[in-house]
Every structure is written in C-alpha cells, then in structure tokens.
Fold each of these.
Amino acid sequence: MIRDEDRIFTNLFGQKPVTLEAAQARGDWVHTRKNLQRSQESIQREITQSGLRGRGGAAFSTGRKWGFVPKDTAQPKYLIVNADESEPGACKDREILRHEPYKLLEGALLAAYAIGAKVVYVYIRGEYAAETKVIQRAVDELYAQKLLGENILDTGVTCHIHIHQGAGAYICGEESALLESLEGRRGLPRRKPPFPAISGLYGCPTIVNNVETLAQVPAILKRGAGWFAGLGTAHSAGTKIFSISGHVNNPCNVEEVLGIPLRELIDTYAGGVTGGWSNLLAVIPGGTSMPLLPKNICDTLTMDYESLQEVQSGLGTASVIVLNRTVDIVDALVNVAGFYAHESCGQCSPCREGTGWMLRVLTRLKEGRGHIRDLDNLQEVTEQIAEQTICAFGEAAAWPIQGLLRHFKHDLEARLGADVPGRVR
C-alpha cells in the first residue's frame, strides 16, 4: 500500500481550499523557478528515467513521447492537455480538475517548457461545466501572479494557457480527433503517420498528454526519478488514481501504487464487494473498453500494466467497474455495446457497420433468439474490427465483447439451448 508521504494528490477529495496560496502550502509551485532554469533535455531525461507512462489509457512512456518533438524547427510547438474524460467508469481527471488544478497547470507549464512549447490548450469535455470554471479561475490567478505569460519568474520562459470546451463526443478523447475538434472541425481521427509530435495542431509539432500524467510531473521533478520509479513495480512505476464503481459498498477515487492486488484495492478503499467477495461475478479493470475478467482471475490479480496484459485485459484508465452476481452479464455487455455503437464517428466502415451489427446480435442473444453459430460469427466480427480502423476505437468496441465470449460464452450458449446445435428461437 502507498505511504502517506508518497501521495502526489494531497487534495484529491477537496477537503482543503482550492486556491493558489493553499496549493503552494501543499508544495505546488514552490520549485517552479528551479525547474524552469534546468535544461529541457534534463527534464525530459528525468521523466523518462522515472518510468512515468501515459495515464489516459495508452500507457506509453511520457518522456519518450516528448522526445519525438523535433528540436530543429522554426514551427511553433504546442502542448494539449487532454481533459476529455469520456470513458465510462472514469472520473479521476474530474477530481484533479476540481481539487488539484494548480498541480495540473504547473505540470503543463513544465511539460511545455520541456518540449519548447509556448502555448498550451486544455481541451475539456463540455459536460464538465463546473470543472471548467475552476480551471479557468486557476489560470486567471496564475496570470495575476505572473506565473503564466511572458518571462515567468524572470526565467525568460513564456507560456500561455487557454481553456477550450469540447462538445461531449467520446471520440475526441483520441488525440488526433481532439486536434481536429480544436481546429474547429468535426472530431474525426487522422490517419497516422504523421503523428502529432511531428504534425499536430495546425500542422505543427504537438504533444497531447492526459490530465493525470501532467499532474504527476512536478512531484517527479521535485523528488527525483528514482523516487517515482521505486514505487509500483519494475515496469509499472509510480502511483495511479483508481476509480472504483459498480457493486461496491463505497464507490471512490483513490491514489495507490501500481501493482496493488485488486482484492486489496476493493476491500480497503471501496468497502468490499456488495454481498461479499464470494458474490463477485466479474470486474472490468480499466474502463468499459477493456475486456472483463471473471472472479477466479480477480482473486489473485494485481493492478499493473503487465499483469493485466497477461490475462488478456488492460489497465486502461484504471476505472474499476465491479459486477456482482445480481448482474445479467450479457445485458451488461449489451449496454456497453450500445454505447460504442452510438459513439462511433462513422469514418471507418469496420467500426461504423460492425458496432451496430454487434449490438443487434448481442441483443438477440440476450433475449435467447438467434443461432448458436452467431457466437462464432460474433467472435469473427470482433477480430475484423479490432486493429482494422484508423484509431483504437475499433479495439475499444470489440475487446469487451471478446472478453464476454472468452469467459462467459456458456451464458450465451445456455440461452440458446446449446444442446441443440443451430437451434433458432
């Protein structure tokens, strides 16, 4: 378990004032001048050595990603804060925006400096109206204290931060679709390459980082890469905010080290599974785009990137959705499939046609209608969608259904009368 002195998010629950003065008393914006006097290369190197990986779901090395930005270019560079938190089950970034905005903004400033960007855009989902007001108020206060703008703290560093609200499209959480939206167009993912680090916002080098990722940067630079790398596991370093919801006695957000056992996480912070651990049916470990896992796997599962990959799932946004035995697991996946069918941008035919097809077939199967062979057809279609689209939305739509077929195929077979192959009801 995490030690109190290792917590990065010390006001995650909003129990302390959300002001610049209060944030500075908690250690934010205290070492900013010192960090802005460091070389850009040394900051990138420290973040790389810390093992920090993107907390938005992709889990790519943050320092390496920054390193992709070309150094010898006359083009302006941009940093984008991805606050379009639309993954069902995810609510971690919302708490940072509400209660730790100064930590996020300091991280954005330091990241922008490290890549040579002078302009930062915070792209925030439209539904986060109250959070937008909080982050805008924090930006205004930082400008008033000369901590943003020109020649920050007499270091010669310039950084301007702008807040931009999206319109509530799930697809805009994908970084290139976010850039399209930011430029005033429909949020459709771009073909890659080129990647945003080479040609992003307005065709210029751009880095897109998640809220939680950037909010961890100041603490790493303050306490050192070795400290952060020493938390968690060898390949899953540091702490992570877990959003625990569903059939638990105390739904919550909590910061913990990566590698914590799933059962310990749920029992310690969420008050346990409703009805007890023996009443557990399955857990979706990283938001609805990740394949669910049955109880027998959850019994010994640890919450880190590698362990979840080994059981054919993923940590994703670390949005833990707990399902107990009162749940109709097929009906739950119909609900998930309905979300992805609705949110598909329609640009790629496998996703545009496949998400609706999967929803219709799953609905028939839930109701006990259809053919036994629909199960194999459903598996085949998921494989034709995943990794066949411009962005990762195809995998997000297909993986949950693959998880259902992998672990709960017997539920579907029972509804169709599996003892009679090809039976139609």
Amino acid sequence: MQLTKWWKCDLQVATPAWDFSLPPGNNFDLLNEAERARFADLYMNSVRANGVEVIALADHNTSEWIDIMRDAGARNGVVVFPGCEVTTGTG
C-alpha cells in the first residue's frame, strides 16, 4: 500500500529584499541582523499558522535573505527552497 502526503506550498515568496512592504504598524530595523531574524521568525510563524509547510523564495537579482529565511524556516517548521529570479540581458 502506497501512502501519499500532500504538502501545502507557496512557491513564490518574496522577502524585504524585493520591493516588499511591511504591514502597517510593524517596525523593523532590517539593517540589524537580530531584527532581520526577528522579522523572519514572525514571517515563518505566520506562514505556518496559515497551514503552509513549504515555501520557495523568489526575490529578484539577490540572494541576500536566503540564509535568514532558511534558518527561520527550520526554527518554525517550514521547508524553505532557496530561489532567486535572475534578470538577463537577453530576457
């Protein structure tokens, strides 16, 4: 008997590195490493609270948040696939 597991996924998740607006009332110093981690934990907590188990990052032309989001995902039970959309000269 083969069992199937279904995963709830969001396969195009942005971070503050890509034209990202924080919800009103949220204030983070995203130049500070501890504040970035705090933001990422809140983000992943929200992702998990909505039942999402897997995300794929989709920032444009940067990998700046990959490690931060992957670490926060691990702390919060969310699988994070690192990703980066790349702009090329030829499209």
Amino acid sequence: MPKQAATCPHCGLPMEPRDLSFEEMFGPPKLLQGRYVIKRRLSQGRIGSVYQAVDNQEGSRPCAVKELTTVALLDPHDRREATRRFLAEAAVWMNLAHPNLVRVTDAFSQARRVYLVMEMVEGTSLRALLEDRWKVFSEETVLHWAGQICDALDYLHRQDPPIVFGDLTPGHILVDSGGRIKLVDLGLTRLFMPAGYERSGYAAPEQRRQGRVGPRSDIYALGTILYQLLTRHDPTDHPLPSLRRLVPDLSKSTERAIIRARKKDPARRFPTVAEMRQALLGERPAPLPEVEPFVLVEGVQARTVNELARACAAHWDDGLMALADGRITNWLRDSA
C-alpha cells in the first residue's frame, strides 16, 4: 500500500492521519511542534481548550495555547477549508500590535486540531465577572473598559482591508487587576462551528440571520455587552427592558450611545467605532489603569523604570534572572 501523502496536493495543508491514538483524539497535548510544553488546562469550551504552556525555544517563555478541534465539521473538505482560513487569518493577527489585543506568535495544525499560540495574559474575563451576581459595575468603570475596547476595535477596523472581530462576547474580553483590557480568542472559533449553530445573544441581527459580519456588527456586540454590564440583564431575552428603567441614574449620553449601537438596521448604528467612542467618552482618552508593581523578589517592588533599575542594581543576580525569563520585558510592555 503506498504511503499516505504528507500534504494535500491541492491546498498544501497537512493531510489528516488515517488512525489517531486515543490520546491524540481525546487527551490533552503534552508537547507541540517540539517546542511548546503544556503545563495545565486553563479553560475548556464547546470545541476547544486553552492551555498554559512554555516555549522551550524562547527560554521557557510563558505562553497560552488555544486548541480548537475540527471534528464538528463532518465534511473533510470543510475541515481542510476551515483550517486553511484559520492559518491565513492567524497569520494576519501575528502582524498586529495593540496594547488591548492579545499578541499572537504562532499558529499550526496537528492531529485534526488547530493551535494558536498567544502571550500569556493575567486577568479575569468579563463573563466570569458577570457570573458573580453580587458584583455591580459603575458607569465610570464600564466606560473605562469601553474606551479601551473601542480603541482595539478601531485599530482592527482601520486595517486594510478592515478586520472584523466577529465574535465579541464577555468571555473574549479579559480585564486585569489594574483595569487594563485585552481582547482574546480573535473570533477564529467561528470557523469550526457547524453551519446553523446557535449564535450568541451578542451577535448582530445580520450575523445571526445571514451570517454577514462587518465593523458595525462589532459595534452592535459592544453595545450589547455594555448594556449587560450596566444592567446585569441577560441579552438573550427579547425584547430587552429599557436601559433607563433598569439604571435610572445612567447618563443620557451613555444611554443614547448604547441604544444607537444596538439598532437592528446596521445603517442606523454608528458608522465607525471611533464615533461610538466619541459618543461615550467625548474627547477624553480611556483612563489609564494603575500600573501593577513589578515584584523582583519578595519585599522588593518597582512601579517606575527608575525604581526597577535601582532594584536590579541592588539585587543584580535576581535582576538578570528576571530579564532572562522575560518578566521585565513583559512588565515594561504591559505598563507602557
């Protein structure tokens, strides 16, 4: 019997193996691409998981690995096409850089799964915060987050061609202890969902009904997220109660902005996310989060570059170790 081709002659993607072991099919990976060592699972969803890992080719640099299974797509051609699109879109994300977007460093396919390697982000998703029914988010806090989300979406929409996030939900927005926002997941999960799957309550009407997405679809999703954060009301309920009834002291400018963002007709929404940001915040920049201190060793912290330099001078060996393992570089980037 001839040996199976390593790659597809038509699309150039790796051919799927005929037989996979039980561990390959159902168990968590241990080593990927000969460099990413999986430490533990951080979360698990319908078609994938996120793992904490280290990159052995980058001095054991911490990273996050998003794993997506392709088995929900029953047709082999659909799986190959989804994998091709995943790798193509991931390549675009690898060239992007914005403080409110998770950095993507690698993408590949292996054993009927695809993988996205990203920076490790410390934070809690807005979905997890919303699950705590005792938490109340002030309008000031919500606008603080909204400004950063708008900045990230505006950056994406201004790319040529525009990049649409396409799957903006509270679960894809992380916030750290200092209030800094990071958008994660990058909407690539949608490629491996079967046709006709139930879309989230955050998807715009044109996305739910026709599968069409554009920048104004992201605006609708953001308006829905802001509505939920302010009201704690499930956005899948229809019709939704009015903002004013649930939050009587909400400012008129915030109320008008959210109502306009959630118009069923895309043409009646904000033309751009920059205009939505203007309506929410005026000329104000998004408030900068408090800088998290860098902990060099127990009892030795720094909040500025000068303080860090003095701490490293006093603890030379610890400073060299922190530089070698990337902790200083990551702190400088996140605090920029």
